[in-house]
Write a structure and sequence with these properties.
- By secondary structure, this protein is of the alpha/beta class.
- The protein has two domains: 2-103 and 222-241, Udp-n-acetylmuramoylalanyl-d-glutamate--2,6- Diaminopimelate Ligase, Chain: A, domain 1; 118-219, NIF3 (NGG1p interacting factor 3)-like (Udp-n-acetylmuramoylalanyl-d-glutamate--2,6- Diaminopimelate Ligase, Chain: A, domain 1, 3-Layer(aba) Sandwich).
- The protein is built from ten helices and 13 strands.
- The strands form three sheets. It has a six-stranded mixed beta sheet.
- The longest helix is centred in the last third of the chain and has 13 residues, at 223-235.
C-alpha cells in the first residue's frame, strides 16, 4: 500500500508527460482514495472497465485512453456522468497516459508491440518520434500479416505494396495512419498501425510499401499493463489487467 501522491509522482517521473504535445490530460484525471492497494489496468476508461475494476476491489485504474480530451465541452451528462459517477461513488483513482505511454522506451505501446513481434526498435520516426523502426525477415507482406494476426488474435487489413521480402518494418500503434508517409520516407517495406483511412490505400499501392491495419485496441493492449505491473512490483501492490474486448 502506498500514498496516491507517491504513485502519481512515480508515474509522472517515468513517463514525463510534460515532454509531449498531446490532446488530453495526462496523469491523474480523477482523484480517489489516498491509499493505493490494487491497480486495474486497461486500454480505455469505459464504463465496462470501471465496473469490472469495482467488482475486483480496485482503488486505482490506469489506462491509455482516459476521460478528458480536447474538444469536450465540459458537461457532465450521459456517458460521462455514468463513468464519473462510478469512479466518485467508489472513490477510485483514474490515471491516464496517452502519447507518453505510446512513446516510453520500455513500457510503451510501441515497444511492447515490437516485443511481441520479435522486433527491436532500432530507430524512431514521425511526429514527436512516436513511431518505431526495426528489422524483420518475412517472405512477403502476407506472411507478415499472418504473424501479426497470430500475435494479436484478430484479423488484419492488408494493402500490399510492391511485393517481395519485408526487411524493414515501421510501426506505430493506435490511430497512427497519418504516420504512413513518414514511414515511407524512413525506408520501410511495411507499416503497421491500428487503423486505415481512405488515402493510405492509394499511397501503399503507389509507393510500394505494404500497409497493415491491425486494430486500434488490439495494438494498444500492452503498454498500460506493462507499466502497471512495473509499479505494482516496485511498491508491492496488487495488479490485474482487464481487457474489455473491442473490435475497432
Amino acid at each position: 500500500m502506498i500514498d496516491r501522491l507517491e504513485l502519481q509522482t512515480t508515474l509522472d517521473a517515468l513517463l514525463q508527460p510534460d515532454r509531449f504535445k498531446d490532446y488530453c490530460a495526462n496523469g491523474l484525471q480523477v482523484e480517489g482514495r489516498q491509499r493505493v492497494r490494487k491497480i486495474v489496468s486497461g486500454v480505455t476508461a469505459s464504463r465496462a472497465l470501471i465496473e469490472a475494476a469495482i467488482a475486483e476491489g480496485a482503488d486505482t485504474i490506469l489506462v491509455h485512453h482516459g476521460l478528458f480530451w480536447r474538444g469536450h465541452d465540459g458537461r457532465v451528462t450521459g456517458w460521462m456522468r455514468q463513468r464519473l459517477g462510478l469512479l466518485l461513488a467508489h472513490d477510485i483513482n483514474l490515471f491516464a497516459y496517452h502519447l507518453p505511454l505510446d512513446a516510453h522506451p520500455e513500457f510503451g505501446n510501441n515497444v511492447q508491440l515490437g516485443l511481441r513481434m520479435g522486433w527491436q526498435a532500432s530507430g524512431r520516426f514521425g511526429e514527436q518520434d512516436l513511431g518505431c523502426l526495426g528489422a524483420t525477415d518475412d517472405a512477403d507482406a502476407q506472411t507478415l500479416a499472418q504473424r501479426v494476426e497470430a500475435a494479436l488474435g484478430r484479423s488484419v487489413t492488408l494493402v500490399n505494396g510492391k511485393g517481395g521480402p519485408i526487411r524493414r518494418v515501421a510501426w506505430c500503434t493506435g490511430g497512427a495512419q497519418g504516420y504512413f508517409e513518414a514511414a515511407i520516407a524512413a525506408g520501410a517495406d511495411a507499416f503497421i498501425t491500428g487503423e486505415i483511412s481512405e488515402p493510405q490505400f492509394h499511397l501503399a499501392r503507389e509507393c510500394g510499401v505494404a500497409f497493415l491495419a491491425c486494430g486500434h485496441h488490439a495494438t494498444e493492449r500492452y503498454g498500460a499493463p506493462a507499466l502497471a505491473a512495473h509499479v505494482a512490483l516496485q511498491f508491492g501492490l496488487d495488479h490485474q489487467f482487464i481487457d474489455i474486448d473491442n473490435p475497432a
